[in-house]
Design brief:
Blueprint lengths: L18 E3 L2 E3 L6 E5 L7 H14 L3 E5 L3 H13 L4 E5 L3 H9 L4 E4 L7 H15 L3 E6 L5 H7 L4 H17 L5 E6 L3 H14 L5 E2 L7 H16 L6 E3 L6 H14 L7 E5 L10 H12 L6 E6 L5 H7 L2 E6 L2 E6 L2 E7 L3 H18 L1
Parallel strand pairs: 3-4, 3-10, 4-5, 5-6, 6-7, 7-8, 9-10, 11-12, 12-13
Antiparallel strand pairs: 1-2, 13-14, 14-15
Bound molecules: iron/sulfur cluster.
Length: 367
């Protein structure tokens, strides 16, 4: 069954204002949400909804869609209506699409004021429309499109420049009594990004959307995001996250979910505790771990499965897990809740673990 006490977490969340992105609450009173962004042409409603469904299945809580053209803006009502998760419209350059997105029933709108010309004159109007519809706004400052004034003042996109830009833009909304804001200040350098968010966290109580921008291909981007988010989440900073990868967005969601699960900020489901293998291994641990992971994909109950290459640490770890195997001599000792329940030949290890996992899942469903 489920653990009786909640698992330990590293830090208390920084106290923030709360806002509602559709049915998803964002802020310190709510779980940290995972976001991603579609890569389809937004105007292609079916393709976009299909991708949103895939992201939802992977654990995405909120999805963002780009809106670079009038055709995309026209597709927003259908997408916002049919998506299972809240849809945020991402607007650059053209304030008219901000109004279109609000009217379309998008759950929030992301603006990059550095990219919206004459944004300042439009703030009053945007604030009024957003407030009328209860639509939150994300102020998304990006190192690559920093406000020219701040670029001139700081010479480049320093942490101070990013934070000042976002806070200045937030103050424009605040002047119109609009506070339903969340903020992001993205940079491709995790060190700059971390510092920028720390400054923001000290200086405002808006919820923060974490992101390392242009983080790179999957391997590098995963690591950059994990270390940057980890450093901030450890301080309780961060209310919603987006991992950016030069890879399909489902991969971003998987990484985001895994980062939160690693810090106990989201309930763990399937967790594979597998050894790195070493000269003592009597089985191909990598292959076994991959096969078990693939076989148990999509398990909906929390399950810790140990996959160990030999009997040195094997039984110990396997005992700590819900389910496990310690291999040796062409056989696998199968453990359930610390007890060896059977020993099977190597070729039956994967199927046996899957069988036992299904049984545990069924039993926990009944309890
Ligand atoms: Fe090596 Fe055995 Fe430890 Fe795996 S469990 S790393 S094979 S000693």
């Amino acid at each position: 069954g489920l653990p009786a006490t909640p698992p330990p977490v590293l830090s208390e969340r920084r106290k923030t204002r709360q806002l509602q992105v559709g049915q998803v609450g964002v802020g310190s009173e709510h779980p940290i949400s995972v976001q991603s962004m579609t890569t389809t042409v937004t105007a292609d409603v079916n393709a976009t909804l299909q991708q949103i469904a895939e992201l939802t299945a992977a654990g995405c809580d909120i999805v963002r869609v780009a809106c670079p053209s009038a055709d995309d803006a026209e597709a927003l009502p259908a997408i916002a209506k049919k998506s299972q998760i809240p849809v945020i419209a991402d607007i650059h350059f053209q304030p008219k699409y901000v109004f279109a997105a609000i009217e379309a029933g998008c759950a929030a709108v992301r603006v990059n004021p550095g990219n919206i010309k004459k944004f300042d004159d439009k703030v009053a109007e945007i604030a009024r429309a957003a407030s009328d519809h209860g639509t939150p706004i994300r102020i998304g400052v990006n190192a690559g499109s920093l406000d020219k004034r701040l670029l001139a003042k700081y010479g480049k996109a320093t942490p101070e420049a990013l934070a000042e830009s976002a806070l200045w833009e937030a103050s424009l909304f605040a002047e119109h009594d609009f506070h339903d804001l969340k903020i992001s200040v993205k940079h491709n350098d995790p060190v700059v990004m971390i510092r920028a968010y720390e400054i923001l966290a000290e200086q405002c109580d808006y919820p923060l959307h974490l992101g390392v921008t242009e983080a790179g291909p999957a391997f590098q981007g995963t690591i950059k995001s994990a270390v940057a988010f980890g450093a901030l989440l450890r301080q309780g900073i961060g209310d919603t996250i987006r991992v950016s990868l030069s890879a399909p967005p489902v991969e971003e969601v998987k990484v985001g979910v895994q980062i939160l699960q690693s810090l106990n900020l989201r309930p763990r489901k399937l967790e594979i505790v597998s050894c790195p293998s070493c000269g003592r291994a009597q089985v191909d641990v990598y292959k076994l771990a991959d096969e078990v992971t693939a076989g148990l994909q999509g398990m909906e109950v929390p399950l810790r499965v140990a996959v160990m290459g030999c009997v040195v640490n094997g039984p110990g770890e396997a005992r700590e897990a819900d389910l496990g195997v310690a291999s040796g001599n062409g056989k696998g000792q199968i453990f359930v809740k610390g007890e060896v329940i059977k020993t099977v030949p190597e070729h039956q290890i994967v199927e046996t673990l899957i069988e036992e996992a299904m049984r545990i899942a069924e039993e926990s469903g009944e309890s």
